[in-house]
Specification:
Shape: globular
Largest sheet: none
Strand content: under 5%
Radius of gyration: 19 Å
Number of helices: 14
Order of helices and strands: HHHHHHHHHHHHHH
Structural class: mainly alpha
Length: 226
Amino acid sequence: MNEINDLVKSFEKCANQEIAEGMSAYMRNLFPFLGLKSDLRKEKQKFFINFMSQQSIDEIVESCRLLWEMPHREYQYVACELLVKNKSKIRKSDLAFLEEKVCDKSWWDSVDSIAPNLFGFYFQKYPEMLKPTIQKWIDGDNIWLQRSAILYQLKYKQLTDKEFLGWIVTQFDGSKEFFINKAIGWALREYSKTNPEWVSDFVAKHRLSNLSQKEALKVINKKNQK
């Protein structure tokens, strides 16, 4: 795809080995980086994103597959941002593709973009897919899909289904997994900005990990200290 080749050439011209090493170290050396800081990367990807956004969802999905196969992490960021910009085009059948991206080259940076921005939108567009999909993720053994189950409502605010959020959280009772407990705390903390009473009550009534509880009550405790 010529547009991807042009993107690669543009990115490689700006590569910075020193910055790349620091970015890779921050991600526990799980992925190589070119060393493009966010502002520069977004400037250099703008033409590609705008061009691809005029194409069909099939072409967008295919370009994202190609970007995901590339070694440097910046290309997965481009893929995520291209999908988010075109989320309104996502079809019901694209759920498997989104799940695939969560499970491939998994880490919090890509998952935390996909979960609230793409799954969150997807389940609003196709509500009939919500409960069977979340149940499947919870019952599975992939922590990143499980984290997605916890975080998909992150941006819902007053539209949050608090009963369902509470039910999801209780499915991970006793979890020792850092990324699960951190996500629980984050989801509850975010909802506490909309409904602090409910979050306070939920935390009081349920046995959460110390990490989840601490994260959940951060905003509430900060307000109480004023």
